[in-house]
Amino acid sequence: MNIEVGEYVRTKDGVIAKVTDVLDKYSVDCDDDVYDLKNMPMMEIPWEYVDEYVVNHSKNIIDLIEVGDYVNGREVKHIAMFEGFPDYPKLIFVDETHLIPDDTCENDEIKTILTKEQYQANCYTVEVE
Fold this sequence. Notes:
single chain; three-stranded antiparallel sheet; 33% strand
């Protein structure tokens, strides 16, 4: 896997972070806790675990978003690119109908991301008595 400084990574646990340094044969350093070493959060991913732990990486953060994640506080329902228009940006849809212009989001409009894995890990479920 060829990860570069300035790219974003998404881990198998749903953590998204920006790569700040790549130390050949040692680690990939990030700007946030991305790796859990026996319940000790770390800001680096050891090289021997990069292929197993990083599920996606890209210079465009929009490429790491999946259906079910939350962008700018709204659930992502659909992700699309317009066929035949390779220069047109990828769009994230937060509306089921995909018809309302205010319900789309492009790469430069992304302010916050909560991945579905983070949501599920931190969600409290009310038990019915």
